[in-house]
Each structure stands twice: as structure tokens, then as C-alpha cells.
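thread: overnight batch results

M.L. [08:02]
morning all. the overnight job finished for the chain we discussed friday. pasting input first so we're all looking at the same thing
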Amino acid sequence: MHPFYGSVTEFLAEGQWWIGLLSMAMYLIFWAVVILFAAKLFKKYFADRPTPPKTEEDLALKILRERYARGEIDAEEFKQKKSDLLE
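M.L. [08:03]
and the structure it wrote out:
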């Protein structure tokens, strides 16, 4: 018989107080698992939204960086064109 269906004093007098603690721990573990599962679902479906597509400005900066890396333009020209693009 479940301990909470009978008299509480009889239950405690029998030395089986640990069953109540076990029951409480099981409830806490159950709700912790439910909350973690709900948080994981929320993160999966709502938090990881895809990023918007890159704009033309990002493409222009990429090309500018590639030209600088290949040595087609020097540092001064790179800085000037970069500042123009970011304005």
C-alpha cells in the first residue's frame, strides 16, 4: 500500500520514512526531465533560426579581401575601399 493512503503516524512509526523521500525525488526527477526535454525542443525549433542571406555588401567585401590577398591591391587601397563599402 502506498504510504500516503494510510495514517501518516503509522507510516513513520514503521521506520519506512525513506519511501516518502524516494517518492519526492522521483517527482523532482520526472519534472526535471520534462523541463529539459521542453527546453531542448524549444531550442531545436525556435532558437536555431537560419541566418538571413548575405547582402551584396558582404560579397563586395569578400571580393575585396580576395584581391588584397592575391596582391592586386595594396594596403592603402584596401583600407580606402573597405571604408567606402562600410559607409
